[in-house]
Amino acid sequence: MTGIGFIDGILAFLMAICTFFTGLINFGTPTVTAGVELVREEQFMLNEVAFAGQGIATDGKYYYTSGSLTAFGVAGLLKFDAETMECVVMNTDAIPSEYREKYESDHIGGLGYYNGLIYASVENDAEDYNLVITYDARTLKMVEVYEMPNELLPDGIPWCCVDVKNGYLYCSQFNNVNEILAFDLETMELSHVIALSQEVVRIQGGDAYDGVLYLSSDIGDSNDDIIYTVDVSTGEVTELCVRSLPSLAGNEAEDLTVYPTKDGAFLHVLDYDKTIGVFLRHYKITE
User: Fold this and answer.
1) Tens-place pLDDT, residues 77-103
2) Full-model pTM
3) What DSSP assignment string belongs to 2-70?
């Protein structure tokens, strides 16, 4: 017994309460600065919340999400049909016991997708042993573990993503980010460092598309969160938009994934509303 069934029961009860109160309380309408427009949003329910509050990636047909219940020693992955948002595969124990015991790894953060594999950033509580673990996108079962250079990631590895066009995996530390690390996808060895034109803070996630890196920044106690773009050839940082997300207890911007959908959405962002749960918000760029 792993206790997963008991945890699921608790989560189901808590989320039923949250769902009830969500219908009674209106915290306000999410807004975004000019040039970007909210297209739609979904709210995760029941036990899905626990494994959808950190990372997200997509292959165009499915969304893949991650999340952790560190108090219970549980970290998992979910796979959703992108059209119906129905969960089709769940792995509720995604960090190998070897690494839980060796490094006390307990947290799965941002995700990337490439060529049938999910790339997941994995930390421990002390943020001094950083991993990237790959999973089979069909089954969500582990494929390979890569130990990342801790000296280059002194503030953890909250996210990673894949630049399919250029053949790199990108990641950075969490706070006071002045550079992006680029690893060769074939060897997973460090290829080069992208020096940023300005420092960015509290980076929770990122994704690359057509030579541009999109970064999700959570501004601490503020309900205003920023999405930046980075030209990966020059390191030039641009503020794409500020998202204002009203919440009674605060909102934490999480990972994002980038993919054009039929309704015009391009940016798909996870948000953890500390009052009522996890949302997936879809935005299109209008300018």
Assistant:
1) 999 999 999 999 999 999 999 999 999
2) 0.90
3) -SHHHHHHHHHHHHHHHHHHHHH------EE-TTEEEEEEEE--GGGGGGSSSEEEE-SSEEEEEEEEG
